[in-house]
């Protein structure tokens, strides 16, 4: 079983998949930072100083706990809100990631197409002569002498 596992792990596609997963994770972090730290502040400023992460629709206001000295009389209630500003950030992040992936796939397909075209254009090497052709060539050369 250990030998099978080693064979499985040593296959190229498993390693390529692992590298791709790691790269995608950090690529996602970079895009998230791009959206949250670079794109959204100017967009929020253009919309009148709005911070998208703070955009929300409050369903229930928070209620502070009621205390009698050090005893809690009533528990507090946290705010219940729909955080649509975060949702907008995630949509923008998704669109940017999707566009970047589209561009990478497009470049990869173009490169692959060029390589296939070069392979098709490259003249095929002439087939090696058969034994009979070699023998006939030797006979012809001997007759010429």
Overview of the structural elements:
- The radius of gyration is 34 Å and the shape is elongated.
- The chain has one domain (2-123): Non-ribosomal Peptide Synthetase Peptidyl Carrier Protein, Chain A, CATH 1.10.1200.
- It is built from 4 helices and 4 strands; from the N terminus they run H-H-E-E-E-E-H-H.
- Strand 2 and strand 3 (71-74) form a beta hairpin.
- With 145 residues, the chain is mainly α.
- The chain has helices spanning 2-10, 12-46, 84-121, 131-144; strands at residues 57-60, 66-68, 71-74, 80-82.
- The strands form 2 sheets. A two-stranded antiparallel sheet has the order 1-4.
- The mean pLDDT is 83.
- Helices cover 66% and strands 10% of the residues.
Which key phrases capture this entry?
10% strand, two-stranded antiparallel ribbon, 4 helices, mainly alpha, Non-ribosomal Peptide Synthetase Peptidyl Carrier Protein, Chain A
CATH class: Mainly Alpha
Q: How helical, in percent, are the residues? A: 55-70%
Number of helical regions: 4
User: What is the end-to-end distance?
Assistant: 69 Å
How many E strands? 4
What is the percentage of strand-forming residues? 5-15%
Low-confidence stretches: none
Strand order of the largest sheet: 1-4
How many structural domains in the coordinates?
Answer: 1
Give the oligomeric state: single chain
CA gyration radius, whole angstroms: 34 Å
Please state the average pLDDT score: 83
CATH homologous superfamily title: Large-conductance mechanosensitive channel, MscL, domain 1
CATH architectural designation:
Orthogonal Bundle
Order of helices and strands: HHEEEEHH
């Amino acid at each position: 079983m250990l030998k099978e596992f080693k064979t499985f792990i040593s296959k190229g596609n498993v390693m390529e998949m692992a590298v791709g997963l790691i790269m995608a994770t950090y690529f996602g972090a970079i895009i998230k930072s791009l959206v949250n730290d670079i794109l959204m502040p100017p967009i929020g400023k253009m919309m009148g100083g709005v911070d998208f992460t703070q955009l929300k629709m409050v369903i229930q206001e928070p209620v502070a706990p009621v205390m009698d000295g050090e005893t809690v009389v009533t528990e507090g209630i946290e705010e219940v809100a729909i955080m649509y500003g975060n949702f907008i950030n995630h949509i923008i992040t998704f669109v940017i990631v999707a566009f970047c992936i589209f561009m990478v796939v497009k470049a990869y397909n173009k490169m692959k197409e060029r390589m296939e075209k070069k392979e098709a254009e490259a003249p095929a090497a002439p087939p090696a002569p058969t034994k009979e052709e070699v023998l006939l060539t030797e006979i012809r050369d001997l007759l010429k002498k």
